[in-house]
Design a protein that fits this description.
magnesium, CCR4/nocturin_mRNA_transcr, Deoxyribonuclease I, Chain A, hydrolase
Amino acid sequence: MYQSPTRFCSALLQRDVSSLCCVSSSRLRRQSPSPPAPPRSQSPRSLSETGAPPPPLHRPPPPPPPYLAATELASGPGSTSSRTAYPMGNGTSRLYGAIAKTLNGSAATQHPECVVPPDSGQLDPIDPKELLEECRAVLHTRPPRFQRDFVDLRTDSSSSHLPIRVMQWNILAQALGEGKDNFVQCPVEALKWEERKCLILEEILAYQPDILCLQEVDHYFDTFQPLLSRLGYQGTFFPKPWSPCLDVEHNNGPDGCALFFLQNRFKLVNSTNIRLTAMTLKTNQVAIAQTLECKETGRLFCIAVTHLKARTGWERFRSAQGCDLLQNLQNITQGAKIPLIVCGDFNAEPTEEVYKHFASSSLNLNSAYKLLSADGQSEPPYTTWKIRTSGECRHTLDYIWYSKHALNVQSALGLLTEEQIGPNRLPSFNYPSDHLSLVCDFSFNEDQDRLL
């Protein structure tokens, strides 16, 4: 059961990491018995537009290693780190310095005294290409990721500055995926955290966002914060006050929203955690809003992430939550003087009032993924597609809103096709969540005097 919002077990790492290595290694080596997943081959893809070459095609899967790489321990102030290396596959992996070092929830919850998060400054940086290869080694028995291409949306000359890549994704809380969401067509083996977390990381690493907005995060302190901090991200987590994850046996704590940004690109100016209200009542839904300064341009902008109330019949409730969020963002952006990007799972189709509030707000927002349509006015046909005991659900619920006069959308990542998703829908052995990730490249309008 959940013990504390700061639950990464630094004490456990010092004391019990050897036994954890053995336990997690055996779990990661375990093959999925049924149904069989086709061998995972590599498809051509690269790490964003960094110029890094794509991994070789049809790389033979590595043999199951006796240990999944190295253990790196931060032993506390004034101590030095120890490292024990083990071979894995091609011999280049440090999985216990990266993936497997993120403790499994069941081990951590047995030690309520472990409530101190690690000092990321004491942990070695991770090469994203190396971590991506480690993920693929763990996933070598699974099908490959599907290829998704960016659509160029530039209408004028390209900006002289690097674009800001923003990723929006409801990653599916582990406790909900295994315990409450009833994905009747998804094999239980496809939801095991030891491999599913590698699928999530692979998706993030493949696109290398500058800013990452996540919902349904219930492994923040033991997985995403320690790993992403070593990739150069600064993170913030705001859990739901009454998370449904806590109703699931052997949960890993509450789920919530998480926001990460690359520290070498942005400076944090202000951060606000917002517990959304509806009809003056505090609700179970939250948001994070941060004002960042772009180090390259000196320009300020606000990035926000949220997750509104789910379920049919709660449309007015979502509308009220959206109005509350807009009012908060109005204040944070000083009456729309600061450009704004809002990412979230709104749990609302474009026909709902909350969508219309954002589209008509005085913050002058537009939905970035509308630009993929032929007329630039239509949202995608779906951003989530699943089959539950209640039936098949295909909806457009996820959005990236932006200040349409202050920011330009240079490109957007195309969605998976129905053929790629497959008849059993999401999640699956191929894809770790029931929601698709959305990724956009933004640039500032060069005319700083233009109205937002």
